[in-house]
Amino acid sequence: MKTILITGGSGLVGRKLSAFLIEKGYQVLWLSRQRDVKADIPIYRWNFQQKEIDRQSIEKADVIIHLAGENLAEGSWTKSKKQRVVESRVKTAEFLLEITESVHKNAGFSFQFGTLEKALRNVLEK
């Protein structure tokens, strides 16, 4: 079975998705900024602002599902909130792409961006 690395795995969607994938037989790993996350899932650390990541997480991953980012439901949509939303999603995706390309050079690792539904369909169909 494939190993799936999830950023934002400790969030509401990430926890539900992790449980679903584990039930289907996939190995699930989380990539987290937090050090105190309590879970039965292996957790690797990253900090995109510092350009730090546990490269082992990327090496082990067959699939990366990127859910991490600023909480969309929390607070007012101020200009600074909108900036944090963009940075927390776009900048992290760029960092993941950069690291993944350096780890999986010439390994045929492909990137697919889209909805969670599309990502799940791609994972489950293969």
Model description:
- The structure is a single chain.
- With 126 residues, this protein is α/β, with parallel strands linked by helices.
- The chain has one domain (3-125): NAD(P)-binding Rossmann-like Domain (Rossmann fold), CATH 3.40.50.720.
- Helix content is 42%, strand content 17%.
- The chain has helices at residues 12-23, 55-60, 79-103, 116-125, and strands spanning 3-7, 27-32, 43-47, 52-53, 63-66.
- A five-stranded mixed β-sheet has the order 4-3-2-1-5, sandwiched between helices.
- The protein is globular and about 45 Å long.
Can you lay out the helices and strands and say which pair or pack?
Layout: E1 3-7, H1 12-23, E2 27-32, E3 43-47, E4 52-53, H2 55-60, E5 63-66, H3 79-103, H4 116-125
Parallel strand pairs: 1-2, 1-5, 2-3
Antiparallel strand pairs: 3-4
